Amino acid sequence: MTNGLEDFSYDEVSTENSTHSEQAKKVLGHFIQGRIVSKTARKQPVYNPATGEISKEVEIADAQTVNEAVQAAEQAFPAWRD
């Protein structure tokens, strides 16, 4: 049995709003049913508190992604609750 993380990786994208726009930033998607779900172009920067620079971006989930995550959690719950 695997945990679904064997092929885990971040998507590399360039960000124009960064103080270092020439560098690629990591984009954090949503981990649902053992895979990264990436469905939206809306992103929120994640700042490094020590430097104030953008270190990553996190995708903002739409209603469909939230519903998919809730449905997956409801299906998985009986197997791990006990």
List the helices and strands and how they pair.
Layout: E1 11-14, E2 24-28, E3 30-32, E4 35-37, E5 43-47, E6 54-59, H1 63-80
Features of the shown structure:
6 strands, oxidoreductase activity, two-stranded antiparallel sheet, Ald_DH/histidinol_DH, 82 residues, single chain, alpha+beta
- For the termini, the CA-CA separation is 19 Å
Spans of at least 5 consecutive residues with low confidence: 10-23
Biggest sheet strand order reads: 1-2-6-5
- Number of DSSP E strands: 6
Strand content: 25-35%
Largest sheet: 4 strands, mixed
Question: What structural category arises from helix and sheet content?
Answer: alpha+beta
Q: How helical, in percent, are the residues? A: 10-25%
Compute the average pLDDT.
77
Q: What general form does the structure show?
A: elongated
Domain unit count? 1
Over the alpha carbons, how many angstroms does the gyration radius reach? 16 Å
Number of helices: 1
The helix-strand sequence is EEEEEEH
